[in-house]
Amino acid sequence: MKRSLMLALSVAALSTAGVASAQELKIGLSSEPTSADPHFHALSPNNSLAKHVFETLVSNDEAQRPIPGLAKSWKTLNDTTWEFKLQPNATFSNGQKLTPNDVIYSFCRLPVVEGSPGNFSYTIKSVVEVEAPDAETVIIKTASPDPLLPNNLTSTHIISAQVFNGGQNIKYKKSGC
Questions:
Q1: What are the residues whose beta carbons fall under 8 Å from the beta carbon of 62, sequence distance 6 or more?
Q2: Are 29 and 43 in contact (CB under 8 A)?
């Protein structure tokens, strides 16, 4: 099982590393993850691994308060609309710049990860639409007021749409992407 985890991590690193030289990554966890895919299974060992490899729009400080992650700021525009401003210099490990399309792709992928025994769609269950009005802004619309959305997004890891989806522009609607 450890060998398959190391292989999965190597594949994940190679798919996003571009021309970086191969290096060994060692991460100490209390138990073995079932997947290196950050959207596959909401299981503690998987979540612990994902926190070492992937980022979220919102992070937590030591008191579990929401703090900036990939989003430098967020605010409500009205009762059901949030605006998230992305960190302007955020990049993936292959040097590719983070875009709103990466956020939208990640949201679209959460509920449809093949073979997932328990995915992360619960983190965005109130979200009905996600838009990108410009290169550094993500607008998230919810079905009803959701003051806990930033907290939920601390578990929603963002992956590269370019690497995993060929960079196609997509739109998130609750009915499907």
A1: none
A2: no
CA distance readout (Å), 57 to 20, 29, 30? 25, 23, 26
Residue 123's CB: how many other CB atoms inside 10 A?
20
The residue length of the chain stands at 177
What's the CA angle centered on 39, arms 65 and 36, to 5 degrees? 105
From CA 16, how far away is CA 157, in angstroms rounded? 15
Residues contacting 89, CB < 8 A, separation 6+: none
Query: Read out DSSP for 25-85?
Result: -----SS--S-S-TTTB--HHHHHHHHHH-EESEEE-TTS-EEESSEEEEEEEETTEEEEE
pLDDT bin (cut points 50, 70, 90) of residue 175 is low
pLDDT tens for each residue of 69-84 = 999 999 999 999 999 9
C-alpha–C-alpha distance, residues 94 and 132, integer Å: 23
